[in-house]
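Example record used in the benchmark description.
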Amino acid sequence: MSTPGGSAEAVENLLPLALSRPHDAIASARTVLARDPLAVDASIAHQAWGISLRQLGDVTSAVRELRTALRLAEQSGRSEREADVLATLGATLGRAGRSREGLARLDRAVELSRGALTGRVLVRRADVLLVLGRHREALDDLRLAIARLRRSGDQVWEARSRNYRGFIQLALGGTKRADADFAVAEKLYAATGQEFEYAEARQNRGLVAYSRGDLPSALRYLDEAGRRFAAVGVAWPDLAIDRCGVLLAAGLSAEALAEMDQAIAQMEAEGGTATKRGELWFAAATAALAAGDPQAAQERADRARRLFSAQRREWWSVRSSMVQLESRYQSGERGGPLLRRVSAVARRLDALGASEASAAHLLAGRLALAGGRARTADRELELAGQHNKDAPPMARSAGWLGKALRAEARADVRGMLLACGRGLDALDEHRLTMGATELRALATGQGAELAELALRDALRRDDPRRLLSWGERWRATALGVPPVRSSDDEQLGADLAALRDVVRRLDAAPDPSLDKERRRLEKAVRDRALRAQGGASGGGASRFDVDALVDALGETVLVELIEVDGALHAVVVRDGRITRHEVGPMARAAVEVERSRFRLRWLSHARPPGRPQGGAPAGSRGRAQVYSGPSLEVLGQRLGDAILGGAQERLGDRAVVMVPPSRLQALPWGLVPALAERAVNVVPSAATWLRARRLRPPADRRVVLVLGPGLSAGRTEVMRLAEKYPDATVLADGDATAEKVLRELDGAWLAHIAAHGTFRADSPLFSSLRLDDGPLTVYDFERLRRAPYRMVLSSCDSGLAKPVGADELLGLSSSLIPLGAAGILASVVPVNDPATAPLMLALHDNLQAGQSLATAFAGAQAEARGDPVTIAAARSFVALGA
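Model output (structure tokens):
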């Protein structure tokens, strides 16, 4: 080949360059075409330009360039050139949704080609067949293509053929075979310098990890792929789609939906292939459904289905129809017409080999049960319960749910409980692949229905021991294992330090650019944490030992509150006897908790302690503040009746361990008259209390006192405590920096931190304590090797946590439990600083007398009398742990 004004090598390199660095390929194609090349060289230049435009999302312009390339190829009289362009044009038309025309072009290209070129054409035809969901035909083409390309030594196209075959194997459930193909493709792309396609290969390895249920590895692969795509200047929609799937599997549905809407907006603004547009809308529909927005899901699924139908993509169209049907169910629709439609779609999904078939049969089974169609329900649930023993944990768990529902409908209690246990075991396996506390907690949401089935059975039998055992099976499981430290802990520490500095500067003066940097750093910190690999072998499916609990309690009474179908039940363990008490609606309990919290918040800001009640409240700017609601005493009685009911009579005068569900974690227990002025330990699960009780204090009785900035009353508090603990390490007045505080806290016997606290409901692991150099977040605390044995957090909202998953908590105090803190004193509402100081001093007097944290706090509460603000401050704290 000769090219006037240019080398043959430069022209030949255009096609590989188009897929590796599309922007560079367009620039080189322009250079070639500016030199009046021969028809064959001009054909290559226009083909490379067209491929580059397709990669960059401009399919309309790509087709125009490729038609020009085809006309020039025909002029050149070279059949192999014409076949190659025909194949590229056919594949591009297929991506544009014009599959019939595209396949016709590809069939003609196969006829014109010979040898290795035939292999390359077959790969592109397989691409279109893959888009159409015609997997078996695509596999036949790829088998022939790989054989020809290997014989000819064409490494780039062999890599592409294996890449496509990996996709198909994955779609058909062949995870191991897919990974093997992707691994070979990755090596070949690396060897041949195909930067874009190497990034795609890394992305595909992420898909395999996702299919195996290894979400941290999937996130790491996808993040790496994103960086590599950015390096070659390509915004790749497939990456957004794959990230959506991984985020949904991790329980991060709101984030998945936000990312998909952003990807759709970008494609609408910049253009893109019709096939990818449909796939983006489909992914957005699944995200909206998971996020609990059925209307948005139905609208997005309808747009996707119409696009797929026009493109004759049955595999995708039927899956979109299923999302529409699930949206109708989530919106409350029931009845025979919906059941018939779902059953029909389930059969089509079976025939297509789609992974959504099991979920479709499960939905059909639910509808049949609701409609009293026992035989139909049995058949559908049997199909839903079928799963491969080698399937990923989440798929196995879904299968066990189908078996459990079927067994319940058949009154097979033993079979139902077995299925519930096996399903939760599978989710334990899934949960422990993740190192991040947040992901572990969110993962439990998948097992809520399995746990609920078992709890209902215990209620039907009126078996309080069984109710307690199953209540513990799926409660606060994420707190049973410490979080795994990030593999790039040094970079995580640097990001956290940078975040502290930015927040400190923002507190001094708001700045939009700094706020943007704060969001970027928070995302970097969180992303790093989410990528942490699990691998813990313990803390998972071990069964709760009720007898061990009874033995450990001794004279102490334990009350575990369990919600089943909206009703609250109290299981009381006292003197070896276990009883159940029906309390009432959970909704009533939640209302009384909020009323009590409102009154305590009001009092915390009403006035300084000791000032007459007519005084102006702090921060009121002189306006009188009037409260006309019930007194603290009345609110406390109502609260006790709503959360404990008749169980209050079983408490006697004993010390109490309270185990509330996550929805009631913010409860001010000291307000309840039946619990007032006695030792009360609050824990997220009985298993947590047992673990905390078994912890041994460090031999070194090291005390750490920390004073954050901006606390006038806190200064008096900490200085007085320093007098009580003359050997304590005191960090204050600029020395209370994150690095110093963490170093001193690690493994301490007792730590007292007086600092402003912030609870972040939007992102609870960024809840923090304010230090001299900025906020100390949960992510900082998770870097401790061991939390202090006892911690007193004399700050607002330090005991708050966000309920997530099935019955899990994410927050500052809850994060310290798996790190080795045996006892934590923290507040569940904002507190009045001046009123808090005497309470803290009394607490430490009792601790120095050898009392436990809960007993010491009960004594300190008893001394807080007379003034309503002082009483409110005392009732705002809870003793967590043992």
